[in-house]
Design goal:
The protein has 261 residues and is α/β, with parallel strands linked by helices. Helices cover 31% and strands 21% of the residues. The protein has ten helices and twelve strands. α6 links the parallel β6 and β7. α6 runs parallel beside α10. The longest helix has 14 residues. The chain starts with a strand and ends with a helix.
């Protein structure tokens, strides 16, 4: 590994660790991840790494692990120097500059897809990614106008597990749903309606898409009409809904374990 001890925190090569904010990306697809758990998990995936900025204690703890990785530059700094570089207080001792992987073509996604419609919160993007990875659902379909799954906060909440998923960013939800149908997917919308199918009664086909709606607005009626079936989680009276990430986790689990009922 190429270790570089920081003597000047104003090096141009370190500027990315200072300038990057929640949803910032450069034209080359650069992103910044932080914390040992997130960085180490991403290092196990097929992601191009540009550099790591960390304390000596991080490098000492993970020496054997890091020696197996292709890391071009390893900047060494104290915790205080790292905080001066990024411009705020840190609760961890490592950051990584990487290049986010290319999105997968729609027709190359797997038979089971979790799809989002206008999710606006990066925390939910990350939480759903973490659950999908844990449950073995490998394809993530998101709107291109929303938070990116490799946004800093989404990465952190996913604990880096977004790196285990194939993702595709769609432009038009109606066109995308139509295309998925022609590819043989059955589209299930997660929503509470008068004719929703209770989750425990859904018959799960081989190829399916589970569509989750906006945190507050849910899924619009014109989108629901395009879906093959509307599904809801049975709840106690007086409880309208779950948080979208919680609902997605419950439904993904049921879809994986109730297939071909």
């Amino acid at each position: 590994m190429n270790f570089i001890k920081i003597e000047n925190i104003d090096l141009p090569e370190l500027e990315i660790y200072h300038s990057f904010r929640e949803n910032a990306f450069r034209s080359d697809g650069s992103f910044v991840a932080d914390s040992p758990k997130v960085v180490n998990l991403l290092l196990n995936e097929n992601i191009e790494v540009k550099s790591i900025l960390a304390t000596q204690s991080y490098y000492d703890k993970y020496t054997l692990f890091l020696e197996e990785k292709n890391i071009p530059l390893c900047y060494v700094a104290t915790k205080e120097e790292m905080q001066r570089i990024v411009g705020h207080k840190l609760h961890h001792n490592v950051m990584m500059h990487g290049i986010r992987p290319m999105q997968i073509p729609l027709n190359a996604l797997s038979e089971h897809i979790i799809m989002l419609d206008e999710i606006s919160n990066s925390d939910n993007i990350g939480a759903i990614a973490r659950s999908a990875a844990a449950l073995g659902i490998h394809s993530y379909l998101l709107p291109e106008q929303g938070p990116h799954p490799y946004a800093r906060r989404a990465l952190r909440v996913s604990m880096g597990h977004i790196g285990k998923l194939e993702f595709h960013l769609y432009h038009d939800i109606k066109e995308t749903i139509h295309t998925l149908k022609t590819m043989g997917y059955r589209i299930f919308a997660a929503e509470v309606t008068a004719n929703s199918t209770p989750l425990t009664q859904v018959s799960i086909p081989e190829k399916w898409v589970l569509l989750m709606g906006h945190e507050q607005l849910g899924i619009a009626n014109d989108i629901l009409e395009l879906c093959d079936e509307v599904v809801t989680i049975e709840m106690e009276k007086g409880i309208k809904s779950f948080n979208v990430a919680v609902a997605a986790s419950i439904m993904m689990y049921q879809f994986k374990h109730q297939k071909n009922k």
